[in-house]
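Q: I have 197 residues here and want to know how they pack in 3D. Can you give me a structure?
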Amino acid sequence: MEIGSDIETGTDAAQTSSLVERIREGDREAFMAIVRLYQQKVFVMAFSILRDKEDALDVVQETFLRLYQKIGQYKPGNPFQGWLIQIAKNLSIDHYRRNRRKHMEFETSKPLDEIPAAVEDKAADSGSSDLRSALTRCVDRLAERQKMVFVMRHYNELPFNEISEAMSISVGTAKSLHFKAVRNLRKWLIPHLGMQP
């Protein structure tokens, strides 16, 4: 499955609701439309946990297969993206646990800047590129839950209520984890910005 770059960021809830209803009725075109709208966001979630492009792509496919099988369990009116990201997160964690030995060997070899959304501007000057690399390394240093909240907030652009739902934590905890992540990133990035702590 190929990851497209022209993903919509502000998917219209009514449009999504209509597509979901059509998927329930077996409409393959509606299913493919949902895949196009959300595959990048699912990939980002999977990659943030697995750190391996091929594994993340496997999880993307598995997530949409699960979506097709379980569409009847989605409750209309609830945030669809949060529900889908929760499926992706659970599948990614399951995949990670099944392949723990492999991931222990390669844990630091796949930084977050390999996520397509994070490296779109290849023409940026070397200063921007260096800063992006530094940010990526700093994000990789975050505690796992802080990193997941940061990725969902800044790469997937999810609101805190959907992050809390996807991670099965309170909105307050999601905000607290995000605050700690940002505070840590600021502290770690100071040397790269040429500033004194």
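Q: Anything worth noting?
A: The two ends are 45 Å apart (CA to CA). Residues 28-50 form the longest helix (23 residues).
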